Amino acid sequence: MEHFVTLFDSLFLPQGLALHLSMIRNVKTFTLWIICMDEEVYEALEKIKLSQVSLLKLSEVETEELRLVKRSRTKAEYCWTVTPFAPRFVFEADSQVKRVTYIDADMWFRKAPNCIFEEFENSGKNILITDHSYAPEYDLSSLSGQYCVQFMIFVRDSSEKVRKLWEEKCVDWCFNRYENGKFGDQKYLDEWPTIFNLDVHVLSNKELILAPWNSTRFPFGNSVCYHFHSLRILTNNNVDIGSFKIPYPTINNIYKPYLKDLRKSLDESRRISLKFKSQKKTYYILKRLFSKLFYLHQYMYNKLRFGIIDF
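The chain above was modelled as a monomer; its predicted structure follows.
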């Protein structure tokens, strides 16, 4: 039994439901813990009653230190601030959980992740992190970090020293900008393989977890997970895939199957009478994380190739 934890609000419910669909197909035996970042998504998930899912209501697990910084953070920044707490919340909720894997809500499983867990176990370490593995034309490691907060494994107790330090740093500073070597919750990870080399393992097979920023570097075929960063739902019928150059085979074999799951997720949202919310505003906020001029060029390139994708 593998335990996973993710977090999202009602705006990202479709991605969260698509993640769950992919886990039912590929992970099989698991528990997915969902930290509900607003009351609306908690109520929606209570109605849907997903199998192999345990819900954690933010208001019930939120610590005093989180509440104190909440007003000073945007919604996205606050989600990032909460992320280091996510493994802690699961360990506190269930004393039987021996390890937990944090995954972003816009991740999607193509295959069983056994090979990732096997590599981690063979490493003898307590934490697993993943490299961004940028394609050269998209390398933003100096600004947003070499490692990506997307898929992270934590072992109970033995990972606590590192996780707790990460938690403290994110409470102190976690903002949507680069400042003094920091960026959100993510750039803190840059130093982990060096100062915590006995605890932290970096996934060696970089093709197992892919994303738009490396889709031109690696073929999709060996991937276990795909991270749909920057994909945003604009209406009930179309999405924007973002500003990265995506190869045609990846569009056909990764994006289109994912969109089928998003369509099922939107239909499920309508079934429980949850009002559709466009993610366009959040999309443009997130686009400001990157170099505007360079990514505007890539954004227009994608529009000419694919346009807004209907699904």
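The chain has one domain: 1-311.
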